[in-house]
Specification:
This protein has about 375 residues and is of the alpha+beta class. The chain contains 16 helices and eight strands. Helix 15 runs antiparallel to helix 16. The longest helix is centred in the first third of the chain and has 19 residues.
């Protein structure tokens, strides 16, 4: 059995070979952040993400995930940020979601890393499990404790050398490894991320109210987007990068090494009008093995309708007319009605009046009626 120092050094080298840009090690001791997480949930800041309430004991203590666990290996893999200057009629997608689904990619690499660790420690049979995002793991605190970065004021993990454009994964194991020193907070007095958030999603530094976050609104929220937040969402149709884009630690982001995380050529043109006209099969094909499929077509078209309404462009009206008059999903029609009301003009008004007669869904009717009320009344 190799020493803890030898094993730790070898796994760092192997992790780099597998495409991980960051690697750190921490103990599997209980997490102090579990109390903060519990208070965050109690305040309702998680919104409709009720699944986060489950397995609180496992989130608090990694040893609940792997009996006898002694260490947690934390890894990070970089992705490229998107351009900041995008035309109002182009849909904006969080940069991590422009390539292949990172869950499958990172999980497969973690499986290879864990296999290497098992090979190096034969005939011992260490216990271990690897996780990517979906498990009951407080991954940001573990990664901060392992030295990958600090918990920023925008609640993203920030590395002084690498910025914050990276994805996380973990291996919880029974192996004895050499732990790294925790990262030190270097946000200082900077508040750029807090000031830049258009929906005021940060009640205070280091605290996110997910219910107001554009990422939550476009991905996790299943129903109607609150009226007071729609006009602040701009042309984001999946996720949001604003608080990362303005962070000084990202002024020279590290380029991604992993080809599958690069933006797909098929997603280069994200015309809102084209996205609004995606049928079921086209949506599945365009976003196959891609994170954007998560809110499903109805949620995605809801987002597209809001973005069209925020464009301020008359060219957006025909696509919204089609969504209001021909789309089967009431959720989409409701947001298309709001968007037409935002754009205004005779064509939008005639369409809304026509829909008021034909529509039967009460929520859609409410949106149409509200959209027909002149501004200021």
């Amino acid at each position: 059995m190799p020493s803890a120092a030898k094993l730790s050094a070898d796994l760092r080298h192997r992790a780099a070979q597998l495409g991980f840009d960051l690697v750190g090690i921490t103990s599997a001791d209980p997490l102090e952040g579990a109390e903060f997480y519990a208070r965050w949930m109690a305040h309702g800041y998680a919104g409709e993400m009720h699944y986060l309430e489950r397995n609180s004991d496992k989130r608090a203590d990694p040893r609940q995930l792997v009996p006898g666990a002694r260490s947690v290996i934390c890894v990070g893999m970089h992705y490229d940020p998107t351009e900041d200057d995008v035309d109002a009629l182009q849909g904006r997608v969080a940069s991590y979601a422009l390539g292949d689904d990172y869950h499958e990619l990172i999980k497969s690499r973690l499986a290879q890393l864990w296999q290497s660790l098992q090979d190096w420690t034969r005939p011992e049979q260490p216990k271990g499990r690897y996780f990517v995002d979906t498990a009951p793991v407080l991954e940001r605190e573990l990664a901060a404790r392992a030295g990958l970065g600090w918990w920023g004021k925008n609640t993203c993990l920030i590395s002084s050398k690498r910025g914050s454009y990276f994805l996380l994964g973990e291996i919880v194991s029974s192996l004895e490894l050499q732990p790294d020193s925790p990262a030190t907070d270097q946000c200082g007095s900077c508040t750029r991320c807090l000031d830049a958030c258009p929906t005021d999603a940060f009640p205070e530094p280091y605290l996110l109210d997910a219910r107001r976050c554009i990422s939550y609104l476009t991905i996790e929220l299943k129903g109607a987007i609150p009226h007071e937040l729609r006009s602040e969402m701009g042309n984001w149709v999946f996720g949001c990068d604003i608080c990362q884009n303005v962070c000084p630690w990202n002024h020279q982001p590290t380029a991604a090494r992993e080809p599958s995380l690069a933006a797909r050529p098929t997603l280069a043109d994200r015309s809102l009008e084209g996205l609004a006209r995606l049928n079921v099969e086209e949506f599945r094909k365009l976003f196959r093995r891609n994170p954007v499929k998560r809110p499903k077509r109805r949620g995605f078209l809801r987002n597209v309708a809001v973005a069209l309404g925020n464009s301020g462009r008359a060219e957006a009206i025909p696509a919204l007319v089609e969504l209001l008059e021909h789309e089967e999903e009431p959720l989409v029609r409701a947001h298309a009605a709001w968007a037409l009301g935002q754009l205004g003009g005779s064509q939008a008004t005639v369409t809304l009046q026509r829909a008021l007669v034909a529509e039967t869904d009460p929520e859609v009717l409410g949106e149409i009626e509200a959209a027909l009320v002149p501004a200021g009344h």
